[in-house]
C-alpha cells in the first residue's frame, strides 16, 4: 500500500524550474480533480518540501536549494481519501498547509494553514536566553537534556511570547540539546557551554 501511495505521489509533473533570488513565497492550490499545484519561488535559504499523512508518514520529500524555484503538480488520485499535510521547512520555520482528499477532489483547508517560527537562542556567558514567538497560540514545550539524555529543564506555556533563561553555572561544559515543540512541530537546537 505504501508503494502505491508513493508511486502515486511520485507521478509528479515538473512544470517549471527557474532561478530567482528574493523573498520566499509558496502557493498551494487545488487544481483539476484530485490534483494539487505547489509553486515555490524566490527561495532565500535551503528549504525542504514534504507531504505527510495524518500518521506523520512522509509520502514525498524534496530539498530546494537557495536561489531555486519550482512548480509541481501532485496527483492524489491513487491514494486513500483523508487529510494530508504539505510542509515547507527551513532551519528557522515551518509552514503547514492541510489538504483534504475526498472521493472526487482535493481541497486546501485554507483556514488551517499554520506557520511556526523556530526559537531564538542567545548565549550570554553560561546563560542561554530562549525566546519563542507563539503566534499559533498552541502549547509550547521546552525540554533541555544533557549529553546522557537526562532531562534538566522542562517548561510548558501557551503564552504569545515565551521567554526562558537557562542557567548553566552549576553544569559541566559540553553540548546540551534543547527540544522546542509548538503544537505538533518541533525544533532541535544544540547549546554548547564552554
What's the helix and strand layout?
Layout: H1 2-10, E1 13-16, E2 25-30, E3 35-41, E4 47-53, E5 58-64, E6 70-75, E7 82-89, E8 93-101, E9 106-108, E10 114-117, E11 120-124, E12 127-133, E13 140-145, E14 151-157, E15 161-167, E16 174-182, E17 185-193
Antiparallel strand pairs: 1-6, 2-3, 3-6, 4-5, 4-7, 7-8, 8-9, 8-10, 11-12, 12-15, 13-14, 13-16, 16-17
The count of strands amounts to 17
CATH topology assignment of the largest domain? Immunoglobulin-like
Strand content: over 45%
Shape call? elongated
Overview of the structural elements:
- This protein is mainly beta and 194 residues long.
- The chain folds into two domains: 2-115, Immunoglobulin-like (Sandwich); 119-193, Sandwich (Immunoglobulin-like), CATH 2.60.40.3080.
- It is 5% helix and 57% strand.
- The protein has one helix at residues 2-10; strands spanning 13-16, 25-30, 35-41, 47-53, 58-64, 70-75, 82-89, 93-101, 106-108, 114-117, 120-124, 127-133, 140-145, 151-157, 161-167, 174-182, 185-193.
- The strands form four sheets. Strands 4, 5, 7, 8, 9 and 10 form a six-stranded antiparallel beta sheet that branches.
- A hairpin with a 5-residue loop joins β13 (140-145) and β14 (151-157).
- The longest helix is centred in the first third of the chain and has 9 residues, at 2-10.
Q: Gist?
A:
The protein has 194 residues and is mainly beta.
What labels describe this entry?
Immunoglobulin-like, elongated, 2 domains, disordered N terminus, mainly beta, four-stranded antiparallel sheet, 194 residues
